[in-house]
Structure formats: structure tokens, C-alpha cells
Task: inverse folding
């Protein structure tokens, strides 16, 4: 009869990850961080007025949420993101497709795309205020700048790397040039494009906060800077938490996009 | 008089200063199966690209009667489309939806892929992918099939099966085929004629005609002699 040797370490390594672990593990690590914060605050590890207690933050969150101000600020930020990010996406993808397919356009434009891509959107703030004044337009403009050049570059790189064999097949199928763009080039670059759009969405979310700290009087960025001016660090952390949670939610949406059949092939080959 | 569907006279092709093909003559009759063998890197794929009209010869004249479809070694199936949609897309320019569906179903059945119609290329085995490519090319009813080492990536048993299936399909639906391979045995078993190409710059070194009947057994009359002749021509003996 074979002898069974108990080896708990190997047994744990062999355990397949369960679906529920994707939910309870982040919750568990979050609870640990919260407990550490609470303990440090209770032990007086932070100088007075620098870091609030978790209870203060929870209370600030409840007050802001109940008053409706938090929702208004979230909507304001998302509104700016939607306009800046979507307008950048709609204009950048066609330009990237042209740059990727045409050598002369690539030579003429790509160095300038790289030039502007390396300029921090924050450097544009003075111009954004002079050109668009105060309100939504300068923030939308900054989000557009932060994402447009990134998406153009990613689209162009993906388009340039589409295997030529696909175009030969399309030619033999007698597909017209418009059908080639929509039925060959675009689906061929879609997996890489989804990754680029996911990264750009994160950048847009970071930039909207920076833009709202300067040019507008609403939004989560404004909430943070306004709370700091009033020395309400509980509200500052409340704003930070909401920003982080919405960022995670946006990322989950893009991760789901990568599971659509017409995109998933790019990750499974 | 035999009708020629492909006729190359003294064609040459350069990649920059590199001469890939030089003064190559080739004539392929309607319904003929021509196999081209040659050493690695001799320009076999370039020759197929020329015959398919994807690149123009630098010198000489090339005439092609009818439409051609190429089956690629590295996989020309669109990975974002299912097997069904890969075949259907190839028919979309010429047929209405009902005819297209009927044709797709027919070719899925011929290539024994009906139950895999909704799978994507990366979900198929190498042999299935090649069958799907074959179905896509044949469904389009192209007059000329250009096969670029289509069985190069398959294991030996699958290759033997694919050879038989290709021959059976061509018996029922005759096409003109130019088949490029580095596999001497494959060329001799499948081709009506075997064109032996020399090292770069590529020219035709020898043409070997084979007796009718495809695929030929390794011991069939003419097969061992043809293999020996090709090996000698390529300096492999």
C-alpha cells in the first residue's frame, strides 16, 4: 500500500484559485490596511491634524453623500472625462490608422506626436485657462491632450504591426478599401487598442483631478483642494478614496472589454 | 491546344539590390497541379506572391487568367473571425446572403468543420486551421490555388491525411494549383509536374513529369526515380 506523505505547502500550492478569492482577498488586504491605519491613529503615530481617523473619514463620507455634494462632484468629473477622453479617442484612432498605414504621413507627423506626447498636460494649464477661461472647457482640453497623443501612437504602432498576409488575403477577397479598414485593420488592432484605451483612461482620470484643482469649482479634484484649504483632511481622504474606487471601476470595465470574443483572440493565441 | 492559366516568361524580381528571381519561365495549364521544390530561402514564397499578383515582376512578363487564392503557411485566417465568418467574408463581395450561407455550409461539410464553425482559429488544431484555409480558398471558386507550404507546420500523420483530403477535394472540384514546398516526398506525391528551383537567384533547374494519379504512394511507378532525380538536382545525394 503506498504511503501518503502529508505536505501542506505543496497542497496549498496545488490548490486552484477560486473565483470568490478574487473578491474576498482584496477585501481582506483592505481590512488589514484599515486596521493598521486605525491602530496607528489610536497610538498617536500622526501629528495632530495631519491624518484623520477612519471614523472621521467615514463620517465625512456619509455627510457628503447625504448632502448630494459628493454625487455632484463625481458627475462633474465624469462629465469632463467623458468629453475629453471620448473626443480624443474619436479623433486619435483614425489619425493613428492613417499614420500606421502611410509611410509619408508617419514620417511627417510621428515626430510631432512624440514631441507633444512628452509634454506634461500640466504644462498646458496656463494656455488652457487663457484660451478657454474657467469652467469645464480647460479641464476637457487638458484631458484631451493627455490622452490624444497616447492613443494616436498606440493605434499607429498597432496598425503598423498588422501582418501583411491579412492585406493580401483581403485583396484576393476583393474587399474595397473602406471594408479593409473596418473588417481587417480595425479588428486586427483591437486587442492592442483596448490595452491603450485602458491605460489612457487611467491617465485621463489622473489629469481630471489635477485640472479640477486649478480651473474649476466642482469635481473631485476641486473637492480635495477645497478641503485642504479648509484643513478638512477627512474630506481630502474621502475624495481620494472615491477617486481610487472609480478608477478601479473604470479599469474593471476595460478588463471586461478584453473578454469580448472579437478582442480575446489577441490574448489567447 | 492546352489552355495556360499562368504563364511567366523571363520574369525576375529584386528586393532592392538583392536579386531573388532571375529569368524564370513557367507555364501552368488549366487544371494542372504543379509542385515547386527548392532549397530554403530560394524565393519560393516570392514566386507565389508574383503569381498571385501581390507584387509585380521587376523584369519579364507574367500573365494570369482568372482569380487566384493563396493558402499561407503561417496562417492567413483572420483570427478575430470564427471559421464560419472567415469563409463567409471571402464570399461577401460576390454573393447574396442566402447563397453565401449555403456555400459556407457546403464547404464546412466538405472539410469536416461543421461542428467547429463557431470556433476561432486559435481554438483549432493545426490540421483544422489548414482545412479551414482550404475551405475558404475553395469556397470562393477561385480558378487558381496558390499553396505556400500549407502543410509545413503540421505533424507527419496530419500531413498524410491532408494530402489525401486535398487530392479528394480537387478530384471533385478541379482547380489549377501551384504548390510550393521544401518537402520532396510531398511534391512527388501530389504534383503532376515538379519544378525544381535552384538557389537564389531562383531559376527553373529541371522539370519532372509524373504519371497520373494523386496522391501517389512512395512505391508507385516513377516516384522513387523522381525523388532521386530531385535530390541529385538539389545536391542532396
Result:
Amino acid at each position: 500500500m503506498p504511503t501518503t506523505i502529508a505536505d501542506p505547502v505543496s497542497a496549498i500550492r496545488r490548490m486552484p484559485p477560486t473565483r470568490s478569492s478574487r473578491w474576498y482577498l482584496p477585501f481582506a488586504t483592505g481590512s488589514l490596511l484599515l486596521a493598521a491605519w486605525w491602530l496607528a491613529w489610536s497610538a498617536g503615530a500622526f501629528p495632530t491634524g495631519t491624518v484623520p481617523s477612519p471614523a472621521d473619514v467615514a463620517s465625512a463620507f456619509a455627510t457628503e453623500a447625504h448632502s448630494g455634494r459628493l454625487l455632484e462632484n463625481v458627475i462633474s468629473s465624469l462629465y469632463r472625462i467623458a468629453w475629453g477622453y471620448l473626443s480624443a479617442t474619436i479623433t486619435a484612432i483614425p489619425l493613428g490608422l492613417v499614420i500606421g498605414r502611410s509611410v509619408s504621413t508617419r514620417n511627417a507627423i510621428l515626430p510631432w506626436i512624440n514631441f507633444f506626447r512628452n509634454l506634461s498636460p500640466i504644462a498646458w494649464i496656463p494656455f488652457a485657462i487663457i484660451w478657454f477661461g474657467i469652467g469645464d472647457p480647460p479641464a476637457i482640453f487638458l484631458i484631451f491632450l493627455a490622452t490624444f497623443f497616447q492613443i494616436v501612437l498606440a493605434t499607429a504602432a498597432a496598425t503598423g504591426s498588422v501582418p501583411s498576409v491579412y492585406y493580401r488575403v483581403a485583396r484576393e477577397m476583393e474587399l474595397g478599401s473602406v471594408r479593409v479598414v473596418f473588417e481587417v485593420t480595425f479588428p486586427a488592432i483591437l486587442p492592442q487598442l483596448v490595452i491603450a484605451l485602458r491605460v489612457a483612461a487611467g491617465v485621463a482620470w489622473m489629469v481630471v483631478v489635477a485640472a479640477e484643482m486649478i480651473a474649476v469649482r466642482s469635481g473631485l479634484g476641486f473637492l480635495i483642494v477645497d478641503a485642504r484649504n479648509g484643513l478638512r483632511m477627512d474630506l481630502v481622504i474621502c475624495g481620494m478614496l472615491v477617486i481610487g474606487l472609480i478608477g478601479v471601476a473604470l479599469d474593471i470595465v476595460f478588463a471586461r472589454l478584453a473578454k469580448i470574443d472579437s478582442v480575446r483572440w489577441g490574448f489567447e493565441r | 491546344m492546352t489552355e495556360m492559366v499562368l504563364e511567366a516568361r523571363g520574369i525576375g524580381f529584386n528586393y532592392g539590390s538583392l536579386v531573388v528571381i532571375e529569368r524564370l519561365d513557367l507555364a501552368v495549364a488549366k487544371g494542372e497541379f504543379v509542385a515547386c521544390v527548392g532549397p530554403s530561402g530560394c524565393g519560393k514564397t516570392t514566386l507565389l506572391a508574383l503569381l498571385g499578383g501581390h507584387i509585380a515582376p521587376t523584369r519579364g512578363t507574367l500573365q494570369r487568367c482568372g482569380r487566384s487564392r493563396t493558402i499561407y503557411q503561417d496562417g492567413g485566417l483572420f483570427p478575430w473571425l470564427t471559421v464560419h465568418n472567415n469563409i463567409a467574408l471571402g464570399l461577401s463581395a460576390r454573393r447574396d446572403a442566402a447563397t453565401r450561407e449555403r456555400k459556407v455550409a457546403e464547404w464546412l461539410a466538405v472539410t469536416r468543420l461543421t461542428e467547429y464553425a463557431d470556433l476561432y482559429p486559435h481554438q483549432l488544431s493545426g490540421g483544422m486551421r489548414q482545412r479551414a484555409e482550404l475551405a475558404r480558398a475553395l469556397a470562393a471558386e477561385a480558378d487558381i490555388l496558390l499553396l505556400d507550404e500549407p502543410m509545413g507546420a503540421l505533424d507527419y500523420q496530419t500531413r498524410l491525411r491532408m494530402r489525401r483530403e486535398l487530392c479528394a477535394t480537387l478530384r471533385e472540384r478541379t482547380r489549377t494549383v501551384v504548390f510550393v514546398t521544401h518537402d520532396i516526398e510531398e511534391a512527388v506525391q501530389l504534383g503532376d509536374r515538379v519544378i525544381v528551383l535552384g538557389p537564389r537567384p531562383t531559376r527553373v533547374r529541371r522539370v519532372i513529369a509524373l504519371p497520373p494519379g494523386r496522391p501517389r504512394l512512395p512505391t508507385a511507378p516513377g516516384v522513387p526515380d523522381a525523388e532521386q532525380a530531385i535530390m541529385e538536382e538539389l545536391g542532396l545525394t
Observations:
- Chain A has twelve helices and no strands.
- Confidence is low (pLDDT under 50) at residues 1-5 of chain A.
- Residues 54-268 of chain A form a domain with the MetI-like fold fold (CATH 1.10.3720.10).
- Chain A has one domain: 54-268.
